[in-house]
Amino acid sequence: MRVSVIGCGHLGAPHAAALAELGHDVIGVELNPETVKKLQSGRSHFYEKGLDELLDRHVPAGRLRFTSSLSEAAEFADLHFVAVGTPLRADGRGYDVGQVVGAVRALAPLLRRPATIVGKSTVTVGTVARLQEIITEHAGSDGVDLVWNPEFLREGHAVEDSLYPDRIVVGLTSSAAEENVREVYAPILARGDAELIVTDPATAEVLKSAANAFLSTKISYINAMAEVCEITGADVATVAHGIGIDPRIGHGGMRPGIGYGGGCLPKDVAAFTHRVGEIGATGAADLLKAVEKVNHARMDAAHDLVERAYGGPLDTATIAVLGASFKAGTSDVRNSPALRLAGLLHSSAARTVIHDPESVAAARHLHPEYSYAEDIRTALDGADIVVLATEWPEFTKDTALPTTAARVVRRRVLVDVRTAVNTSVWTAAGWTVHQLGRPVQHPTA
Ligand SMILES: NC(=O)C1=CN([C@@H]2O[C@H](COP(=O)(O)OP(=O)(O)OC[C@H]3O[C@@H](n4cnc5c(N)ncnc54)[C@H](O)[C@@H]3O)[C@@H](O)[C@H]2O)C=CC1
Ligand SMILES: O=C(O)[C@H]1O[C@H](OP(=O)(O)OP(=O)(O)OC[C@H]2O[C@@H](n3ccc(=O)[nH]c3=O)[C@H](O)[C@@H]2O)[C@H](O)[C@@H](O)[C@@H]1O
């Protein structure tokens, strides 16, 4: 099929590349000229595992191209994915849907033959109905359908999740549109391992918001239990493991830490909390407010833990912060808890140096006032405390790191705010390890 993807960010770029991999002819439309140039050269503008390989394969072959011209895409494609941003409004009261409304409003009059617009961006319930009115009023042809097909990919796994999704959810009202959606995802559906859920637009909108709200609730739940463990001297890692054995609970999303961050969960929970309050669903609003409250409190808990580990105020401390991205596997620093903690430490400590394997450039762009190190050794040099802020395997799986780091730090004190390291490897190399909701682990050597 000839398809377009409008908005080539963290969702759109992998989605466009995956569609080319599935055998479609794809045109990506992006407003940012630098992004277009980068993608045209076959390189991604952010780090995402496997994405450059797909771009390498399909851009030179001409199966995947990028442009800033929406009319070129309107002329070329019969199916148009909309993957533009839905940031939180400045006042926090729901999404700013300007990018989505702008893209649909601009595309509709350019469509001169029947076409299907497939929304992928995350929107609050009611948005599709509003967009449908815009299409009815402005479409340049009859037979322009709108469907909503929310996305469930995770950053760091965007390519794999796009090629091998566990579900495809489509909210629609037209059978012609359903056929087109089935055709575009035919190679995935033929495998039989992804469930196709065809429903109405409102259900698709709520389903996506409910998914992210549930993931956030689970994270806040285990973080609330970490607070209980901190007070009682219990071990939250054992609690998480023990309760997760029950398949009704499961182990996914049960890693305690500094709370959920990133370009999606925080804004999606905030927007959904606002929306459910607005429509009078008070039970949902109260539940989600509590989820957000727990999440915000983790940052203070993490800062307090660093102070406790140092033995008092940090104004004389040199701190190495390992990790800046919001989670491992991505260079994305949007709403990154790691970078927020680094910022707090930057304000309270004598010296704070941040290192990340992939996101130093993005972090420096956002916070040029912080100090960064391109290599881990420079970051660790002379540190009184090492704070593990993002669970990159470079920090958690390298069994030599505790020994090599011990040679350059001033004190062997690790604060792992992601509950990610194998503590016995560190304590065996002479480190004291502090984690949220767990008893302090003392050196065994
Ligand atoms: N990042 C993720 O992992 C996922 C994101 N989502 C949702 O997908 C949407 C996009 O998110 P991200 O890709 O993270 O945002 P992003 O900010 O990385 O990308 C959005 C892109 O759209 C471009 N854009 C805006 N208006 C445009 C227009 N009229 N024409 C062409 N390009 C335009 C922007 O320049 C930007 O590059 C959001 O609603 C998000 O909630 C959903 C699932 C996963
Ligand atoms: O709508 C979206 O954009 C996406 O949001 C999340 O994906 P993502 O933001 O890539 O990241 P997650 O892996 O869910 O992690 C989110 C945050 O929670 C934190 N987290 C995650 C899991 C956990 O056990 N503990 C924990 O603190 C992570 O470190 C990160 O800060 C969802 O997992 C995706 O299904 C969804 O499509």
TrEMBL record:
<feature type="domain" description="UDP-glucose/GDP-mannose dehydrogenase C-terminal">
    <location>
        <begin position="320"/>
        <end position="423"/>
    </location>
</feature>
<feature type="binding site">
    <location>
        <position position="267"/>
    </location>
    <ligand>
        <name>NAD(+)</name>
    </ligand>
</feature>
<dbReference type="GO" id="GO:0000271">
    <property type="term" value="P:polysaccharide biosynthetic process"/>
</dbReference>
<feature type="binding site">
    <location>
        <position position="86"/>
    </location>
    <ligand>
        <name>NAD(+)</name>
    </ligand>
</feature>
<feature type="binding site">
    <location>
        <position position="208"/>
    </location>
    <ligand>
        <name>substrate</name>
    </ligand>
</feature>
<feature type="binding site">
    <location>
        <position position="334"/>
    </location>
    <ligand>
        <name>NAD(+)</name>
    </ligand>
</feature>
<feature type="binding site">
    <location>
        <position position="261"/>
    </location>
    <ligand>
        <name>substrate</name>
    </ligand>
</feature>
<dbReference type="Pfam" id="PF03720">
    <property type="entry name" value="UDPG_MGDP_dh_C"/>
</dbReference>
<dbReference type="Pfam" id="PF03721">
    <property type="entry name" value="UDPG_MGDP_dh_N"/>
</dbReference>
<feature type="binding site">
    <location>
        <position position="155"/>
    </location>
    <ligand>
        <name>NAD(+)</name>
    </ligand>
</feature>
<feature type="binding site">
    <location>
        <position position="122"/>
    </location>
    <ligand>
        <name>NAD(+)</name>
    </ligand>
</feature>
<dbReference type="InterPro" id="IPR008927">
    <property type="entry name" value="6-PGluconate_DH-like_C_sf"/>
</dbReference>
<feature type="binding site">
    <location>
        <position position="327"/>
    </location>
    <ligand>
        <name>substrate</name>
    </ligand>
</feature>
<protein>
    <recommendedName>
        <fullName>UDP-glucose 6-dehydrogenase</fullName>
        <ecNumber>1.1.1.22</ecNumber>
    </recommendedName>
</protein>
<keyword id="KW-0560">Oxidoreductase</keyword>
<dbReference type="InterPro" id="IPR001732">
    <property type="entry name" value="UDP-Glc/GDP-Man_DH_N"/>
</dbReference>
<dbReference type="InterPro" id="IPR017476">
    <property type="entry name" value="UDP-Glc/GDP-Man"/>
</dbReference>
<comment type="similarity">
    <text>Belongs to the UDP-glucose/GDP-mannose dehydrogenase family.</text>
</comment>
<keyword id="KW-0520">NAD</keyword>
<dbReference type="InterPro" id="IPR014026">
    <property type="entry name" value="UDP-Glc/GDP-Man_DH_dimer"/>
</dbReference>
<comment type="pathway">
    <text>Nucleotide-sugar biosynthesis; UDP-alpha-D-glucuronate biosynthesis; UDP-alpha-D-glucuronate from UDP-alpha-D-glucose: step 1/1.</text>
</comment>
<feature type="binding site">
    <location>
        <begin position="152"/>
        <end position="155"/>
    </location>
    <ligand>
        <name>substrate</name>
    </ligand>
</feature>
<dbReference type="GO" id="GO:0051287">
    <property type="term" value="F:NAD binding"/>
</dbReference>
<dbReference type="GO" id="GO:0003979">
    <property type="term" value="F:UDP-glucose 6-dehydrogenase activity"/>
</dbReference>
<feature type="active site" description="Nucleophile">
    <location>
        <position position="264"/>
    </location>
</feature>
<dbReference type="Pfam" id="PF00984">
    <property type="entry name" value="UDPG_MGDP_dh"/>
</dbReference>
<dbReference type="InterPro" id="IPR028357">
    <property type="entry name" value="UDPglc_DH_bac"/>
</dbReference>
<dbReference type="InterPro" id="IPR036291">
    <property type="entry name" value="NAD(P)-bd_dom_sf"/>
</dbReference>
<dbReference type="GO" id="GO:0006065">
    <property type="term" value="P:UDP-glucuronate biosynthetic process"/>
</dbReference>
<dbReference type="InterPro" id="IPR014027">
    <property type="entry name" value="UDP-Glc/GDP-Man_DH_C"/>
</dbReference>
<dbReference type="InterPro" id="IPR036220">
    <property type="entry name" value="UDP-Glc/GDP-Man_DH_C_sf"/>
</dbReference>
